[in-house]
Design a protein that fits this description.
The chain is mostly beta strands. Among the domains are: 104 residues, Immunoglobulin-like; 111 residues, Immunoglobulins (Immunoglobulin-like). It is built from two helices and 20 strands. The strands form five sheets. Strands 12, 13, 14, 15, 17 and 18 form a six-stranded antiparallel beta sheet that branches. A five-stranded antiparallel beta sheet has the order 3-4-5-9-8, with no helix packed on it. The protein has a four-stranded antiparallel beta sheet with strand order 7-6-10-11, with no helix packed on it. The chain starts with a strand and ends in a 22-residue tail after the last strand. Keywords: Membrane, Transmembrane, Transmembrane helix. It comes from Actinomycetospora cinnamomea. This is Secreted protein.
């Protein structure tokens, strides 16, 4: 069979004929028709579909190998503990202090305690900072870089001490303690910090412990050497309550009190039950032109809840510091709680 090849017109037409080689097979158009007829067979279509499926799997596996396995979703690490907020009574907003051994990264680390009952011994401790190293720089508050308060759990045996710091940050003092559990309060302001801190912890002294009942509430207190201190004013939860303590001796008002810790008196208030260390602020300072050297010493006291408190007034006269102690009951006001809350914490600077 012969077929005509396509004509090309480049000037005059040229005609060429050729004879098909039987060995080569049918001409192109015939071959295409033959292959189409074969591909239309069901078996061929199935084989083609299988080959396409295998090819897709191979290509998909290759892409997966190149891209790498899909990473498992990783859960975000749980958030760390939030800084403990300053503890305040929810009803009054008054601050409570001294209930925690550690606060805002600072820790009271007691190294040594007196070993025997009523036997003088060393009390040594450090204030550890946020890095764990001992703090060696403090901002003085009330003329001292640190105030140390000791009191037994039954609120007897009150001591207000001012230890001496070694260059390595270890504070040392000598004292004697009765048998029982005692609360140690460290009141200080680290250098560069705007707020003061009061940290507290218990220390135990082995021996025959005989708890002392809380004395009844009274507006007067006497010292062993004949001074009488009279308290006027009421403690009202949630407010800065004015409190006045007047000093007399042998019935005569004392008008020549000496400055002590930048005031004519230093007042510590502890809540009965948990020994919360409360904020008490003197209202005047020696030499300010308006504050007399006695007999009255005025303070503003904040208490967080109703109930009994123990007040300790330090005052200086004729070169000797004396302490007068009171039991005062704060009456519940409208919306104020009864009893001691269980919160712990510290907050604003305070004057003790």
């Amino acid at each position: 069979m012969t077929t005509a090849s396509p004509e090309r017109t480049v000037g005059a037409p040229a005609t060429r004929t050729s004879t098909a080689d039987p060995a080569v097979g049918a001409p192109a158009s015939g071959r295409r028709a033959s292959w189409r007829s074969r591909l239309d067979r069901p078996v061929v279509r199935l084989v083609g579909f299988a080959l396409a499926l295998v090819l897709a799997l191979v290509v998909g596996g290759g892409v997966g190998a190149i891209a790498g396995p899909t990473a498992e979703p990783v859960a975000a690490p749980p958030p760390g503990p939030a800084p403990a907020p300053a503890v305040t009574d929810p009803a009054t907003g008054a601050d409570v202090s001294g209930l925690a051994i550690s606060r805002d990264g600072y820790t009271l680390d007691v190294l040594a305690t007196p070993g025997g009952v009523d036997t003088p011994g060393e009390l040594a401790f450090r204030i550890l900072g946020p890095t764990g190293a001992p703090v060696t720089a403090f901002t003085p508050t009330h003329d001292k870089p640190l105030h140390l308060i000791l009191v037994r759990r039954d609120q007897s045996g009150f001591q207000h001490l001012h230890p001496v710091m070694d260059p390595d940050g270890t504070w040392r003092t000598t004292t004697s303690l009765t048998a029982g559990d005692h609360r140690v309060f460290a009141d200080f302001a680290p250098e560069g910090r705007s707020e003061a801190l009061t940290l507290g912890r218990d220390i135990a002294v082995a021996g025959d412990y005989r708890p002392v009942p809380l004395p009844p509430a009274s507006a007067t207190a006497t010292t062993a050497d004949g001074y009488t201190v009279t308290l006027t004013g009421d403690l009202v939860p949630g407010t800065a309550s004015p409190v006045t303590l007047s000093v007399s001796r042998d019935g005569a008002p004392v008008t020549d009190l000496q400055p002590y810790l930048a005031a004519y008196g230093h007042l510590v208030a502890l809540r009965t039950g948990d020994l919360a260390y409360l904020h008490v602020h003197p209202t005047g300072t020696p030499g300010d032109g308006r504050t007399a050297a006695g007999p009255a010493i005025e303070f503003l006291a904040e208490v967080p809840s109703a109930g009994p408190y123990r007040l300790y007034l330090d005052f200086a006269h004729q070169g000797v510091v004396r302490t007068a102690e009171f039991t005062v009951v704060a009456a519940a006001g409208a919306g104020t709680p009864d009893g001691a809350p269980s919160g712990h914490g510290d907050s604003t600077p305070h004057g003790h």
